[in-house]
Amino acid sequence: MDYRELERTADRCRISTLRMVKAAGHGHIGGAFSCMDIVTVLYFKEMKCDSGAPHKKERDRFLLSAGHKCLAQYAVLAEKGYFPKPYLDTYGSLGTILPGHPDMNKLPGIEANTGALGHGLAIAVGMAMGIRLDEGDSRVYVIMGDGELAEGSNWEAIAAAAHYKLSNLCVFVDFNGLQISGRVQDIMNFTPFKERFEAFGWNVITIDGHDMKQIVEALEMARVAVDRPTVIVAHTIKGKGIPFLEGKAASHFWSPNEGELDEAVKSIKIKAGLQEGKGYDW
Q: Which Gene3D superfamilies does the UniProt record give (predicted)?
């Protein structure tokens, strides 16, 4: 898949995300849209994964540590064929396979229950160690939020990953600068991320998290680091793709009225080259 097709795929997934927001009346749209391009590249370009065999031992693993951004993963899993797209309309409903945080017991393709911030990376470290003990060549990928790094358990996991030289572990920090209460730097500032991770012994790459070429190249560079884990600090925009939500903390959890949802869908469709598309013709 070339870079333009990756962009189109991410746009389709953003539209699917808005479909879920329409169904539930709300959703964590800001973080889902800031990490959408990364999740798209992982599933459609980088990872060994098969919707027909989601538990295959040789698969790569992906954990969305910031589990409240699950709208992004659900949309990509549907686009990849892990479940039929009409299920998107059940998001957040009683008994759905698409709850407000990922549940490995409900949906194929989910590797761990996440959303209690600070847990995902530690789980991923254990997975990476287990793969090494089994002499496997699978890789483990994680997306964390920048606000999530205030959780102390992350730093224990970061230290352990470096100590055991887990080169099969690659972490993205979705660095959109915002969390539910406002700017991360005002609430609990853990920048500079590069210097902090390097001090623990990690390979650090910094990119524009909405540039498909940079995401792909960073993942290629991560594979070259054979003696340490890699973190990719991805500068992103919260609510990316919806002009009136971009860069606003209010997009963290969004309950739109019908007019706002119409405008959001239109914005994404225009970006995707679907200017003639109107309404909710999913």
A: 3.40.50.970
Q: Which residue carries 């060994």 as its tokens?
A: 48
Is 282 within the bounds of a domain?
no
Question: What total of structural domains would you count in the chain?
Answer: 1
For residue 27, give the 3-state DSSP assignment: strand
Q: Please check whether residue 25 lies inside any domain of the structure.
A: yes
β-pair type (203-208, 178-179): unpaired
3-state secondary structure 164-198: CCCCCEEEEEEECCEECCEEHHHHCCCCCHHHHHH
pTM: 0.96
List the Cα angle 21/26/32 in 5-degree steps. 65
Helix axis angle for 29-41 and 70-80, nearest 10°, is 40
Count of all residues that appear for the chain in the document: 282
**What is the DSSP-derived secondary structure letter of residue 204?**
E
The 10s digit of each residue's pLDDT in 13-56 is 999 999 999 999 999 999 999 999 999 999 999 999 999 999 99
Would you say 106 and 73 are in contact if contact means Cβ atoms under 8 Å apart?
no
Q: How far is CA 91 from the centre of its chain?
A: 18
Domain that holds residue 156: 3-271
Q: How far apart are the first and last CA of the chain?
A: 23
- Say if 281 falls within a structural domain: no
